[in-house]
Amino acid sequence: MALSSSFTMYEGMTVPKGVVVSARKCSQGIMCCLSSPISQKLGLSKSISACSGDLIRSSFFPNEELFSKNGLLRDGSCCRALETEKAFGLENAIAFSMGEKFQLDDILDAQQFDRDILTAIFKVARDMEGIEKGSSGSQILKGYLMATLFYEPSTRTRLSFESAMKRLGGEVLTTENAREFSSAAKGETLEDTIRTVEGYADIIVIRHFESGAARRAAFTAGIPVINAGDGPGQHPSQALLDVYTIEREIGKLDGIKVGLVGDLANGRTVRSLAYLLSKYQNVKIYFVAPDVVRMKDDIKDYLTSKGVEWEETADLMEVASECDVKHAVVMHPLPRLDEITVDVDSDPRAAYFRQAKNGLYIRMALLKLLLVGW
């Protein structure tokens, strides 16, 4: 893949600014395909192709004769050019193509994601919705084993990861309360547990009571690790499903106003969400919490450095008056305990159970991407 500020060489091709090129095997020789929007913007024909050593000339790829010099014609490589939002301002453009390796080895924190990757992950999640709703299921992850290693109680996160794996044809090894019922109770270190578990599985999903535990696990493991919550640290898959839900419910992510309410000092979900929201334009965040549990300075400093507007208050009604009540949605990572009464459930703006279901699609997408790529 190439995404450059000017021109980039990729597999012998010179590509213009913002165009992403990926290569994979095909039997027809070389085919460089341009979708209609990019073709229209560049004033070019939709595609060029070459089979059996015969090249069709194109002004778009001035050095396409290099294909024959570097063996691409002989081994049957296929190149595809895709437009990107960054280059052409196309809202639904995605800069990654099928068959490519996922850009991340592990899912540990929200800072790992940029806007392009988020857009692409959400598109895969939409595809997962279709798989989940289909009657035939999927065998994308057949032969893969996922270990869920949870040192803290969980219902939604653990079960949604396990459901995601099974719906894609994979299998699950699970321990529900590893703090009490694993060798950790005997004093085994996290690192030794991870070294053992990675011998049984292809991917580890870990929830731990200590901040930074997921990163320690990823440093130790030779297989992908997903952080399913590490103490007061982060919960990146929850943040992903939160942003995905906002987009599905409201229809946009730029220009939104978001109120984050509750124990913001120790809430790993809101910390991760704040990081992800900073990827979008003209977002304003309201931190609503008593002084004793207000959002920590590291998040506020990060948002300021990214040019994200934020305000802090202890008055929820003050924030509500600033938001568009008609189009507001109520979200919650659950369990809600006494924070939202059941009377709210019948309001169409109550999105928390739809939000929980969206977690399945996001986690299906993450497992697919980490194990088999785009």
TrEMBL record:
EC number: 2.1.3.2
Keywords: Pyrimidine biosynthesis, Transferase
InterPro entries: Asp/Orn_carbamoyltranf_P-bd, Asp/Orn_carbamoylTrfase, Asp/Orn_carbamoylTrfase_sf, Asp_carbamoyltransf, Asp_carbamoyltransf_Asp/Orn-bd
Pfam families named in the record: OTCace (PF00185), OTCace_N (PF02729)
Pathway, per record: Pyrimidine metabolism; UMP biosynthesis via de novo pathway; (S)-dihydroorotate from bicarbonate: step 2/3
Positions of the Aspartate/ornithine carbamoyltransferase carbamoyl-P binding domain: 106-247
Role noted for this protein: Catalyzes the condensation of carbamoyl phosphate and aspartate to form carbamoyl aspartate and inorganic phosphate, the committed step in the de novo pyrimidine nucleotide biosynthesis pathway.
Name under which the protein is recorded: aspartate carbamoyltransferase
Provenance organism: Thalictrum thalictroides (Rue-anemone)
